[in-house]
Amino acid sequence: MDRRLDRPWWRKRRNQAIGGAALALAAVAALAAGLAAGAKPSVRVPAAGVTTAAVERAVFHDFVAMRATVTPKDQVFLDALEGGQVEQVLAHSGDWVAAGQPIIRFRNTELELEVLDREGRLVESITQLQAYEKQLEDARVANEKAAARIQYDITRLQRTAERRDALLEKGFVSREAHQAAHDELAYNRDLLPLQLASNRQQDALRRRQLPQIHAELESLRESLKITRAKLDALVLRAPVAGRLADVDVTVGEIRNRGQRLGQIVPQTGFELRADVDEYYLGRVRQGQGARIEAGGGDVQAKVIRVNPQVTNSTFQIELAFQGAQPGGLLPGQALEGRLTLGGDQPALVLPAGPFLERTGGDWVMVLDDGGRKAERRRVRLGRRNAEQVEVLSGLQPGERVITSDYAAFEKVDQVILAK
Q1: CA angle 71, 72, 77 (to 5 degrees)
Q2: Is residue 62 over pLDDT 90?
Q3: pTM of the model
């Protein structure tokens, strides 16, 4: 009896067709993988979206562009010496003030009462010291009077004794009266040295005390002067002449002691401050020249101070104008300028561009002869300014380099420029 024989699955035409297709796809994938293994990572970008420039031999201008801020040479800050309630504003920001001119008047009842109390106590102490000084002087005068009185009594009694001596010989006076005159004379003669010695001691003590009294009086008078000056401090006055700035106070508000109230800019001129990229820190020094655009032209300036502290990838320099200062400058005004780092020299140069921020000057994308493809190349760059970069090695004159931003090129070795 005949029976049907089925073909194995791998011999069926449908399965054979599917298997052949799978083998073909595997071969194509293997071929593509093999080709990709030797290919460079690349990215395709529109040609219109990139900027290119040629490497050429030219004069390299060794400068750094900067944006300088006008600042006053001198600033005098105004602080509240004694706080209180603002009673009157006598000058405002932008006004010219003379030295000693009142600017703000405060009212402080508590301070006024405190000053009056302390002033009364100081006056009382001064009065007591002056009274004591007067007592010492009165005692000195009394002692001198006592000594003079004794000297007078000695002279008077000596004459009386001499007269009684003559009268006693003639019997006109009793011996008792004669002896009394001599006894009183002897007593005063013995009393005089004691009085003179006491006078000397008290005078020495007085002389020692007087300087101390005078010093204490001077100290009390100075304290009294300072105490009274506290009330004068309720009126804020301009310490120097100049333009008033940053005064922002309102009548009725309370300001505390030591609080900053504003500043005065004297007419001593202006200087410049500029932030420079930390890349140039080793090349900027005191005395270097700069050219500043101000007053409708260029003026010369010189670096007078370099602050080496780096903040936010920049350091600060201060510059002074050379010669006549341009007119019309205002504090805080921004001026464009160029800081000269060295002389102009021939070099192989490349125009500066955003590519430097991504590569740090270590590599660039160099276009081929057709200008349709660019490849990564290691280079060594030297000095740079806002317009040029000095090429030390890796590039030749005439070669073109992509100088626009490399944000899309950091992980590729090849850039294809599409139309």
Answers
A1: 115
A2: no
A3: 0.53
